[in-house]
TrEMBL record:
Pfam families: DUF308 (PF03729). GO terms for cellular component: plasma membrane. It comes from Solirubrobacter ginsenosidimutans. This is DUF308 domain-containing protein. Keywords: Membrane, Transmembrane, Transmembrane helix. The chain crosses the membrane at residues 71-88, 94-114, 126-146, 152-174. InterPro entries: Acid_resist_chaperone_HdeD, DUF308_memb.
């Protein structure tokens, strides 16, 4: 899932992020023959935009210091991942696969850590967040363990991950009552 840690999203913001993830994910999965350069460019764009969103959210009123640190760490990881993708475009599909795999594992791990911390205070209702974190880690491990899968398989696996994560975010936005924030 596109982890957003503890800071709530507006329904519109959650839906926009979900649509972006579903759109990119579907594009990757449906047209896997696109070049690795296109995958790298789209990945870099996505991670930079999401890093910007995290930084904006980190400095919103009412966000505690630890949440700011987690959002800042996520933004830093995303900027580094985008930088590697942009400045080393000649890298093999295997290297890009490992970078994306580490990215997915890191986000899934932080999602599960935050859910574990928050579940102590707020009881139940964390199923989608747990499923998103597990999906992210499973995708990342598959990409890291089998880095030689190639650009086509990378496009399909990462595309399915993004599409499912985006769909889960859209569901969270849809089930949230009007005027309330989405915690995704």
């Amino acid at each position: 899932m596109l982890s957003s840690f503890t800071a709530p999203l507006s329904r519109g913001h959650a839906a926009l992020r979900g649509i972006l993830a579903v759109g990119l994910g579907t594009t990757f999965a449906v047209w896997p023959g696109i070049t690795i350069g296109t995958i790298i460019a789209l990945f870099a764009i996505y991670t930079v935009v999401d890093a910007g969103v995290c930084l904006v959210r980190a400095f919103q009123h009412g966000v505690c210091g630890s949440d700011r640190a987690l959002l800042g760490l996520r933004a830093l990881i995303e900027v580094i991942a985008a930088g590697v993708a942009v400045f080393y475009p000649g890298a093999t599909a295997a290297v890009m696969t490992v970078v994306i795999g580490i990215y997915a594992i890191t986000l899934g791990g932080t999602e599960l850590a935050v859910v574990g911390r928050l579940s102590k205070f707020n009881g139940n209702g964390w199923g989608w967040e747990i499923a998103g974190g597990v999906l992210s880690i499973m995708t990342g491990v598959a990409l890291v363990v089998w880095p030689g899968i190639g650009a086509v398989t990378l496009a399909i696996v990462f595309g399915l991950y993004l599409a499912i994560s985006g769909f889960m975010l859209l569901l969270a936005a849809a089930k949230t009552p009007s005027g309330r924030t989405v915690v995704a």
